Amino acid sequence: MSSQKVSEHIAKVAAERAKRLRPDGIDQYANLSGEFAHMNEDPFTDRIEREPYRDHVTAAVIGGGFAGLMASAHLKESGVSDVRIVDTGGDFGGTWYWNRYPGVQCDVASMIYLPLLEETGHVPTEWYVHGPEILEHCQRIGKHYGLYENALFHTQVTGLDWDEAAQLWTVRTDRGDEFTAQFVVMGLGHLSVPKLPGIPGIETFEGHSFHASRWDYAYTGDPVGGPLDNLRDKRVAIIGTGASAVQCIPHLATASQELFVLQRTPSVIEVRNNRPIDPEWFAQMATPGWQQRWLENYAATMTSAEPPAEDLINDSWTAMAKMWGNAEQDVPAESDTSEEPLAPWYYADVKKMGQIHARVEETVKDSRTAELLKPWYHLACKRLTFHDEYLGAFNEPTVRLVDTDGKGVERITPRGVVVDGTEYEVDCIIYASGFEVGTAPTRRAGFDPVGRDGRRLSEHWINGMRTMHGLHVHGFPNAFLVQSLTGGTRFSNLSHNLSEAAKTVAAVIAHAVTTGVDVVELTQQAEDSWMDNVGIDPDWRTFLGTECTPGYSNNEGTDLGPHSLWDAHKFPDGLGFFRHLQEWRGNGEFDGLEFHRSDS
Ligand code: NDP
Questions:
Q1: Would you say the CB of residue 191 lies under 6 angstroms from ligand 1?
Q2: Is the CB of 242 under 6 A from ligand 1?
Q3: Which residue has a Cα nearest atom 34 of ligand 1?
Q4: Which pLDDT value is given to residue 488?
């Protein structure tokens, strides 16, 4: 590949980025509140009235998605039986409770994405299972570990206060509950608050509209993934072409009378290659400890400088990781790249984007549509998507790609959407416009824990999250997070991060309970020392700010701010961090934590 081709590519990427930059950054989006609050209602489960709870539990777990379920399961396994999960949804599942749009599917291989497979004995049916099976698996975990009995669904925590005298947390909710907990565990997710595009006139639309994460099957028909029969006589617009839209557009394409896909930035569409899992193969493979071995093999393949010889998952994610790892090979021997540390990345980028573009050309029959579906941004700037039917959907006579040339939908009217002065009249608008990112975590949580000395978590985190391991926070005794920010690593299998976090938190709580400890607290020194090594690599920050197309990875192209998704610990690699956590919780010392008994 010539250096001229690389320069041309970079110039085109920069021009496309410039079209998308806007001064309002993340403020361009609207919440599903106020006049849009109806879009945030739960379309899946009826709310059941109940009396408020005024009792005490050993552990209150806020969030019943993967994080909360794994933490609760490990607590139960460690002998802490009195666990109560509180969740805003009507059942367990978190992301997978809410996101039920047609075609919803995991993007990371089932064997390493679905938690607790060995413990529950579930054999995934597909290499990338669909949403209903993931939701059912969450329910399976709930039943297997007896988590339903004490759970509070359709319940939003509104207050969490440390009671110094009682050495307990008081948990308050929007259902009038006010109960105490010795320990609280927060598994709140990173992409859990849906957002709407702040398009002028959005409130004036007189047709039907909903967010993809609150799919209205009563309107579209068929709640279990069959044909969306009610759309046969409907003109539908979908706004957004990110990971959610990519999965549901092929279904809308064949179901709707007419589908308008409103595109601001085309996604990279990688190969999916889904296939059924052969139960016989699985039975032979699944010897004791298999899931942990697979998890660690993937972590090492994705993040280690010297990846293992065998790549068990061997998919588009691991291919991408190997491509970055071997990027030097793409630089021609004669090129002098000593002045440009990112040069290998650029060469790899151009090569890979060439393949992505070729796939579009091979699949999409109309050459103009194909051109518009080609993404022009650096691969690392946006979340990859994976699909084998998405591009082909644009060959359906019912589907019309309405590209906005990076500007976004101009206006919404009572009748439809306007792009470049043309109004497209529709019966329904589906917002596949993503989730709130870049705001304070306590805002997204909907409550602001008050720890020792009346100090709020939002104050402690005014300049960004501060933790040790992403799990413990100084000044917030007996409270734990199950999440990955300020943890040791970021890579594409969040489920593995949550698994190691959950095991660690459960180990600390179980240790406290079995040794009669009342209060567990992170020292200031331990938090400071961990945070000394947390931050965004300066080159990467510059790259995000100056070369990446706007998106949730870079606060829509504005300054990253204190609450970006990128403040990972500078740990050598993913597996190294997990080994550190295993050693930390396994040696019984829990370095950095102090354990107090009230009688001592
Ligand atoms: P995203 O934030 O990725 O996508 C939002 C889409 O809305 C983008 O295409 C965006 O365009 C578009 N948009 C926003 N404002 C406007 C506007 N004014 N006019 C036109 N278009 C607009 O949300 P998703 O729900 O698709 O995905 C969020 C994340 O959730 C993913 O990145 C992934 O991490 C996760 N996810 C995981 C899945 C899995 O594992 N199976 C499946 C789905 C999601 P632009 O790109 O220009 O900003």
A1: yes
A2: yes
A3: 383
A4: 83
